[in-house]
Amino acid sequence: QVHLVESGGGLVQAGKSLRLSCAFSGRTFTDYAMAWFRQAPGKEREFVAAVSWTGGSQYYADSVKDRFTISRDNTKNSIYLQINSLRPEDTAVYYCAADTVFKHSLPYDFYGQGTQVTISS
Fold it and tell me: N or C terminus: which one in the chain shows less Cβ crowding within 10 Å?
């Protein structure tokens, strides 16, 4: 069973940057494409970004591609999401996800518990 643990969320001022991390365990990390999703209050969970098994390819949602960067470190079994120029509309719970298929849509096979990101204006 895959286990995912997110960290790095918090209360941040608009315009600042934030880096989220996700630690993977339980299976072979390089067998899985990884992704970030987010869910704002009262809204459905939405795709944010995905990275391929080697880290060589990425997908981004159109709404974030100029400010978000997804990456992975296969030596640390971890992925990251760098978020720049934070906006109040980025407020959401951010979820790390894993799937053997590299794709830019729900569903993924495994999700973490999420980390709350709140942006103050």
Answer: N
Give the Cα separation of 85 and 109 in Å (integer). Answer: 30
pLDDT tens digits, one per residue of 84-103:
999 999 999 999 999 999 99
User: What is the rounded end-to-end Cα distance, in angstroms, of the chain?
Assistant: 40
Complete DSSP assignment for 56-102: S-EEE-TTTTTTEEEEEETTTTEEEEEE-S--GGG-EEEEEEEESS-
In b/e form, how buried is each residue of 70-79, taking b as 16+ CB within 10 angstroms? bebeeeebbb
Peptide bond just before 41 cis, omega within 30 deg: no
Residue 30's φ and ψ, nearest 5 degrees, are -75, 0
